Amino acid sequence: MNRHLLPAEVPDPASLRHVQQLCDLAAPYEQGPETDALFAAAMAESNSWHAERSEFFRSLLTDEPGTPAPGVGPDVRAPLVHANFFKRHEVLSVPRDEVFLHLTSSGTTGQKSQMFFDEWTIRSAQRMVARVFDHYGWITPDQPVNYLLYSYEPAPHLKLGTSFTDNYLCDFAPARDTTHALRHTGTGHEFDVRGCIEALQRYADEGLPVRIFGFPAFLHFTLERMRSLGIPPVQLPPGSLVVLGGGWKGHADRQIGKDDFYAEVTEHLGIPSERIRDTFGSVEHCVPYVECERHRLHVPVWSRAAVRDTATLEPLPHGERGYLHLVSPYITSVPAQSVLMGDLASLHPGEECGCAQPTPWFTVHGRAGVSRNRSCAVAAAELLKGMS
């Protein structure tokens, strides 16, 4: 069994019994009245946990009734905390000596979300990712693979959440070789597009499956560069997989439609569309949202999603666009169990997808407004300047 599928224990089994039970659910897209009731009970425990340990959340819970929203459930109280709050404030619900991991959300300058994880929280989030990968058959301990990571090469003191995640994903299949697209130079990171092209050519010849993780803009730019140089497409071996994350933020002028992008990957690398998946997540909310084979971001059993009006924050019905609101009781280190994201999204019932996953799914339509805050993807996109 993969080590990330092993049991983890909440910090206080007596007061977080339902949180433990919810996070122990192994089927990532299970749904029904029993799981809804368990989720509501777990959220109540989570709210009490943070209210007892965080003056900020205690006051919020007193002042904010937490309007129920479709997708979250009528019995779930979920006062809103905007993701940007964590860019300006450090609010913990555990002593600092219990912080197991500290990650940030952005690049070398600009405001960063400072997120602190106790061991339970980060292990729980990792187990969620492992269960989604296991669900799709992507944990292959007996099949070595080559990795091309469109993310930051690890470096001393680098705390970026995206770098942590992409390197963690390499635990699900043994690595024969690993190539990082954003190479550490000693003073920063540079995009090594020629190194990526050479890795793709080498990996195609070696015959092992290839796993490509990270920012989609950099993969797109690599394929563009191959075309401009007259380099023919390569055929990556069967079993190869592309799992992307971080979006195109900061480089929207070069973004192409998802269908066109996936077709480009298939054309140049030989990977079929069902083996190309986008993801959504953030350092403020580490629950994994991974596309199904029809490329819809389904909500897993450990979380709930809603969409709220950008002016009133009232919940919106299915299909309408507003702020994405994500809820999960898994986190005990920081009162981030109910986060209002800066992304515009629409929520849809599971049956509108047509895949085997029954849970609701959402579409992200972009960022709301213009902000000086810079995400990991924004910082990374700046490395593309001058490369075209």
What would a concise description of this structure say?
The chain is built from ten helices and 15 strands. By secondary structure, it is α/β, with parallel strands linked by helices.
Shape: globular
Uncertain regions spanning at least 5 consecutive residues = 370-388
Query: Major beta sheet, specifics?
Result: 7 strands, mixed
Elements, N to C (H/E): HHHEHEEHEHEEHEHEHEEEEEEEH
Q: Total number of β-strand segments?
A: 15
Alpha-carbon distance between the two ends? 44 Å
The pLDDT mean sits at 88
Structural class: alpha/beta
Protein model, in words:
Residues 79-382 form the Acyl-protein synthetase LuxE domain. It comes from Streptomyces ovatisporus. InterPro entries: ANL_N_sf, LuxE. Helices cover 29% and strands 22% of the residues. It is of the alpha/beta class and 388 residues long. Strands 6-5-4-7-8-9-10 form a seven-stranded mixed β-sheet, with helices on both faces. The radius of gyration is 20 Å and the shape is globular. The longest helix is centred in the first third of the chain and has 21 residues, at 33-53. Strand 5 and strand 6 form a beta hairpin. It has ten helices and 15 strands. The chain has helices spanning 17-23, 33-53, 55-63, 85-88, 119-135, 161-168, 193-206, 216-228, 258-269, 376-381, and strands spanning 81-82, 101-104, 114-117, 145-152, 175-184, 189-191, 210-214, 241-244, 276-282, 285-290, 297-298, 304-308, 321-327, 338-348, 361-367.
